[in-house]
Write a structure and sequence with these properties.
Elements lengths: L8 H18 L4 E4 L9 E3 L2 E3 L3 E4 L7 E7 L7 H12 L5 E6 L3 H10 L6 E8 L2 E9 L6 H20 L2 H29 L1
Parallel strand pairs: 5-6, 6-7
Antiparallel strand pairs: 1-4, 2-3, 4-5, 7-8
Amino acid sequence: MSPILVRPVREQLEHDRIIRLLKTKWRRRYEVGMNPAAEQNAPVSSGTAVVYPDLVLTSTDRRHKLQGVIEVETGESVNHLEALSQWVSYSRLPAPFRLYVPAGMVDVARRLCEENQILASEIWSYHSVAEEVRFTLVHKGKEPPPPAARRTTRPTQYAAAHRKASSRPGERSVRSKKPRATRVRAKTKKARGRGSRG
């Protein structure tokens, strides 16, 4: 939780409940560290600073490479100060940043991201139905292909275009005529040579 924000007790309890639900959801794929309330169990280095997102996703191998961070907001915490103090630094980490906000705050969260140039990989909404919490993906950021993929795409396209051009009937007939024309000229020269000797 951000030091500039003190949530009402009821919102804090709901916030921590959602974090635990998400931990259960994501631990099928990752090792999940959790920082509920003011706890600092799973730190992440961001430049020279250390940040504590609500959930930290790491790979399950020995390297425990960072795979993503998740921040859960409540109605009170979807605001400009929270965006600047946390979302900006989370979006600059070398891993996807997923933001979860109440269903009624989706438009506000989108506007804050646009105004502050925050690149959220995904924005999810959540709402409660009785005792059940439902999550909905409402925004997915466009990620450019990796440099290696871009390098291999251009030569492949060029090669395909080159093969297509070389297989045109017109070009093939031009190439096949050149050797024939050369042979005709050679025969004509031989015939002239014989005629002059006779």
